[in-house]
User: What shape does this take?
Amino acid sequence: MARPRKWRHVCCLPQSNMFGPLKTSSLDNEVVLMTVEEYETIRLIDFEGLMQEECAERMSVARTTVQRIYNDARKKLAQALVNGSVLKIEGGDYKLCDSNEQICGCGRCHRHRHGGPIIKEELL
Assistant: This one.
């Protein structure tokens, strides 16, 4: 029996979940799917400047898990940029952090689009 996947804590959903070339229709290009937890690792490590250990603590997973998620996310970003593909952020195994939780500490939890803690399962 396979081990159940652990929920990754995510601070907030992205403001926009689709990115891509400006001068082509999205039907012409391949769509690269990035999960919400992949987006969160990019946000925490590249945008917030956290180390992988700090990112892992915020997301309540092991550092090696963050490293794998981060590498997958970077590969998808590169694929979208180099090939001119549309990047769509959706799905994954995540739980939005509650504004009352001490685990996050990011100060951005008030930006939830849906208002409370939400658990989202992988859409694949």
Q: What stands out?
A: Residues 8-19+29-120 form one domain.
